[in-house]
């Protein structure tokens, strides 16, 4: 949403570490998709699948891999264009400057510790004993409960709830509506009613974690629910009490993880995957969309289906299932044919069936 | 929740374009379910399935299709009773009058443009450069970010988040807790960590779209995530970055659509359906509940299961699966029987197996 | 999050109705997991699975079933340790004292009725005609709409939305971001567009219900959506309009229940289960995770899979599916073998196939 400031292609190539093919004095002022880019835009060509669209694009310049050819404009070649795209977007869309201070409409406890370099937005609430670190951004209408800790440079978007005692590391991004530290779902039936088990533990979110909109991470019964460094969590994900998630994991939208699971480092759970309670998923395992994981998954395994199975078996089942209705018919037919053979051989007296 | 104002049946029939069978001077003052309706209520008889309950209902009048008979009260016959029910409910439950103006507790940027006919509720926040159109209702605790545009007669319920630059057309209804314009879920692994791809695109929601409670629609990486006119989206739905959804589609609760999908006009995705990234679903396609769509779906196709298959195949598989455990046993038995036959024929020297 | 106050083991045993084995004068001041407990903590040993961890724990005392042996510290034996754990946690983590009164930053309608013993948090909004009962806690940023009723001792966490006319019984707990009373998802296609069916009914939540973070319970078209006494609902659950849920049911995270379903007393729906509209689930039925329930389920039945089937059949199918790819191959082989037999017998003129 930033304004457009022109930059010379020569300077841009230098900033990005790219090799320029074209006029270094020409300027561009934005990034745009191939289809809608104009002469003042850089467009992105990730791989050969984009080449067709690129060749008819009106973009003034193209960010490409080293080997792209036939493009109708200047070319910025680089070894890892997907990573360079991040730098390019950052150049044209710098973050809004942080304006430190507490909005007069915010309600901040006198017993909270808000770093003077932090920004607390309109109508945000910060409870007693909460600690808001340097350069933190609390957007409007954020709730940070008593005793919660928000590490430096965290960004909490509107309507985020961080309940009491929850601790966030540094540079954690929490998208709108996410809820950190609601009570875990724990009851004990006493013969008459479900009695609530007090959930007196906490939530720890380490550095560089990102948490999607309306995602929920429950506080643990005792001890802490933990999300380790660098893990990225999409929207509407459920992480139950006492779960521990390793570093650099990826949890796509609507994933649900039941209580006390251990999810390894670098695990990838794609959309709508469900994990039953107390399951251990080894480092680097991957689950395809909608997989239902009821049992432990070894490190590095790739699973699919319900219940989760290794994908090589899973895909073979998928293929075979299509033949299943036909198979039923064929087996019925086989039974008739063998019956006939048996009876004929029986008729001739040569083959009585056991 | 409106008060009850009596209306004469004659006048009601006229207003609804219904044919009255009963005393036009009799009055009713509300609409109620068949089971709880009293003599002052109109009850709804949609089709023959409701007739049994209707015949013992205490309702004073019945809204029915043309051919209903044997009802214990006045009858309002109409050609399309389900559509007429909408008018009937509207008559007895008019929307609350809109009281224009900005609540003194709201925090509205001086650089926002709020139409004088709009209503901004208590503790709502409107950012700089935002445009709030005529007769818009922002309920209490709504957040509208900088530069966002809210078209005329939109209704945003409490705790809705509309992030910066998101554009809503006219008469869009957004239910509580929905989040429009959170960052899309995009990272690039650089060999050490997942680097965040800035999500600098927007969200466009066209006229007459309705968005359910706690649903999330992410902003795109570049360009816009788009929901076209007339589409209705239920609660807890996830729409990822760069998705485009056609006109008049229906997305039921907890549907998840991954990045860059194109969903056609009039598509119906029922509860908990998941769609993998970059999938194209043709106009008018329908997916049964919990379907997992990993590949393109042709226009008009009806699919089910994981992975999605045409329903005629899908149901045949479902039927066959029930026989599968038995089938395994039967095939084992066939193998034994044929082995026996082969060995006997082999014994006689007539049939050595190839 | 409470401070640690030491308590003598003798007194603790008495308070819990436990039999103490150890020094009654020794004190403890908290509860902790076996792995992290220190000499001042009580740790919990629920059953034999915990014994191994318990034997190397540094905990000062152990809460155990009657028959646990070999523990390295004092032992508090009790008949139902999981229930006693609830009391133990309650002793060391009493609820924060309720401070009655309305925060000056809250926006409470003059026409609302707030009991003087209730606490209304910062920036909460209470609409006209709403009734807030004795000892209710409205946390900061809660929205209670016009005419809503909140029974005594309810707790509503931050960012909860209770729309107009919704009624909560006593001791209902609503976690952050939950939305009660959004419009049900109802449209009627008129040949050109989907027309919205006004949702003029309500939501009734009875005593002792707990509702998870970001869960949504929609208002009904006519009449009420009802959750009966004692039912516990986890995070991100969707309950559609006109649903009725019996007493003491358990709905785990991300469950979705479509319109007009009746869910019986004591039903357990585990994570991500989906229920199609108008389905009736009998008392005490159980659905395993991700089950897709499209048809009625008898009382006491245990179901799994899509579509839902009794678990004994379901597990047999799961086992057989693994053999399915192999089965296809075996049937093909059988067909070849029988063909050969038939042709040989045909050759000999003894067995022409019908």
Any overview of this molecule?
Three copies of one chain form a homotrimer. In chain A, 18% of the residues lie in helices and 27% in strands. With 354 residues, the first copy, chain A, is an alpha/beta fold. In chain A, the strands form six sheets. Chain A has a twelve-stranded mixed β-sheet with strand order 8-11-14-17-20-25-28-31-34-37-39-40, with helices on one face. Chain A has a ten-stranded parallel β-sheet with strand order 9-12-15-18-21-26-29-32-35-38, with no helix packed on it. In chain A, strand 22 and strand 23 (194-196) form a beta hairpin. Chain A is flat and about 95 Å long. The interface between A and B is large, with 72 and 69 residues.
Structure summary:
Three copies of one chain form a homotrimer. The first copy, chain A, is 18% helix and 27% strand. With 354 residues, chain A is an alpha/beta fold.
Which secondary structure elements does this structure contain, and how are they paired or packed?
3 copies of one chain form a homotrimer.
Chain A: E1 7-8, H1 9-16, E2 19-21, E3 27-28, E4 30-31, E5 41-44, H2 51-55, E6 61-64, E7 74-77, H3 81-92, E8 101-102, E9 107-108, E10 113-114, E11 119-120, E12 125-126, E13 131-132, E14 137-138, E15 143-144, E16 149-150, E17 155-156, E18 161-162, E19 167-168, E20 173-174, E21 179-182, E22 187-189, E23 194-196, E24 202-205, E25 210-211, E26 216-218, E27 224-227, E28 232-233, E29 238-239, E30 244-245, E31 250-251, E32 256-257, E33 262-263, E34 268-269, E35 274-275, E36 280-281, E37 286-287, E38 292-293, E39 302-304, E40 309-310, H4 311-347
Parallel strand pairs in A: 4-5, 5-6, 6-7, 8-11, 9-12, 10-13, 11-14, 12-15, 13-16, 14-17, 15-18, 16-19, 17-20, 18-21, 19-24, 20-25, 21-26, 24-27, 25-28, 26-29, 27-30, 28-31, 29-32, 30-33, 31-34, 32-35, 33-36, 34-37, 35-38, 37-39
Antiparallel strand pairs in A: 1-3, 2-7, 22-23, 39-40
């Amino acid at each position: 949403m930033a304004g457009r400031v022109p930059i010379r292609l020569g300077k841009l190539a230098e900033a990005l570490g790219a090799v320029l093919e074209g006029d270094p004095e020409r300027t561009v002022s934005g990034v745009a998709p191939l289809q809608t880019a104009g002469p003042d835009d850089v467009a992105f060509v990730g791989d050969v699948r984009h080449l067709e669209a690129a060749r008819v694009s009106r973009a003034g310049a193209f960010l490409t891999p080293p080997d792209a050819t036939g493009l109708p404009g200047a070319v910025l070649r680089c070894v890892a264009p997907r990573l360079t795209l991040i730098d390019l977007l950052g150049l044209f869309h710098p973050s809004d400057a942080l304006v430190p201070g507490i909005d007069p409409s915010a309600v901040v406890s006198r017993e909270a510790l808000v770093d003077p370099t932090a920004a607390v937005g309109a109508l945000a609430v910060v409870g007693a004993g909460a600690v808001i670190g340097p350069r933190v951004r609390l957007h409007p209408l954020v709730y940070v409960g008593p005793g919660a800790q928000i590490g430096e440079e965290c960004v909490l978007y509107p309507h985020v709830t961080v309940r009491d005692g929850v601790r966030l590391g540094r540079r954690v991004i929490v998208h709108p509506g996410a809820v950190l530290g609601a009570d875990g779902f724990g009851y004990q039936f006493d013969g008459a009613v479900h009695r609530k088990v007090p959930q007196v533990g906490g939530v720890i979110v380490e550095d560089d974690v990102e948490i999607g909109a309306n995602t929920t991470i429950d506080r643990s019964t005792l001890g802490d629910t933990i999300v380790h460094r660098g893990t990225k969590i999409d929207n509407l994900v459920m992480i139950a009490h006492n779960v521990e998630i390793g570093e650099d994991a990826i949890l796509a939208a609507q994933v649900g993880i039941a209580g006390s699971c251990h999810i390894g480092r670098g695990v990838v759970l794609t959309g709508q995957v469900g994990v039953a309670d107390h399951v251990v998923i080894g480092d680097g395992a991957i689950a395809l969309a909608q997989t239902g994981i009821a049992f432990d998954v070894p490190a590095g395994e790739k699973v699919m289906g319900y219940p989760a199975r290794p994908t090589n078996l899973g895909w073979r089942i998928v293929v075979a299932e299509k033949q299943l209705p036909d198979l039923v018919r064929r087996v019925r037919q086989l039974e008739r044919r063998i019956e006939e053979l048996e009876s004929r051989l029986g008729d001739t007296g040569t083959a009585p069936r056991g």
